[in-house]
Known about the structure:
It is a single chain. The chain is an alpha/beta fold. Helix content is 46%, strand content 10%. The chain has 13 helices and eight strands. The strands form two sheets. A four-stranded parallel β-sheet has the order 2-1-3-4, sandwiched between helices. Helix 1 (16-28) packs across helix 11 (248-255), helix 3 (52-67) crosses helix 4 and helix 4 (78-93) crosses helix 5 (95-105).
Amino acid sequence: xxxxxxxxxxxxxxxxxxxxxxxxxxxxxxxxxxxxxxxxxxxxxxxxxxxxxxxxxxxxxxxxxxxxxxxxxxxxxxxxxxxxxxxxxxxxxxxxxxxxxxxxxxxxxxxxxxxxxxxxxxxxxxxxxxxxxxxxxxxxxxxxxxxxxxxxxxxxxxxxxxxxxxxxxxxxxxxxxxxxxxxxxxxxxxxxxxxxxxxxxxxxxxxxxxxxxxxxxxxxxxxxxxxxxxxxxxxxxxxxxxxxxxxxxxxxxxxxxxxxxxxxxxxxxxxxxxxxxxxxx
Length: 281
């Protein structure tokens, strides 16, 4: 299984634990990720607010470069996934848009290949049974809630590979690792990531509602698949009773027995060590 890999900016900087754990998990599971040559920022999360041409030219450049390899594109950030999928979708549905984009890029882009999120690849291509066979340290009794947020499943005509209102793909993956996945009412709520700098009071309210929902059901941690959601949910929590937020790939690395797993998890602002130690992890 081979994919052209779009790492994304956050996974190369402040949220490198997401990028590194994703690559390590894929390597352990036999998934080959070939980094797109000379990739650049996709414009998330503000590019599409500022300039529509820029919002498509940035992901379009990366997609055109990846198309030369002939593989589907894999990405791990939900925002990157949406931006890349949106441009692919527009090219497939409008010859005029395609022509204009190619003029902007100065190169062809036919949108022949798919853009895939790693969750989709792991569950629907590799399969849960194959993952379960590789588990060395089951996440036994660890109580988790899975947070999908806005961009991973919506708008459904562009991105969704699961039910946009009640997705379960990450829940199934965490259950396969041995965790106890809890039902809750905030799995597709907005955390306000795009409002972090402009409306901090709104963001604190949104994050407060999400984290309180996790506390109400007794979750040890919130599992995420987006660096913006991770940063927001961690840094905008208030009070002393903070809920740990971890990437699904970090928990996969822990369950698969990868040597760097604990180091990645310890990079978070809100420590998950207490919850993991309590369950012998």
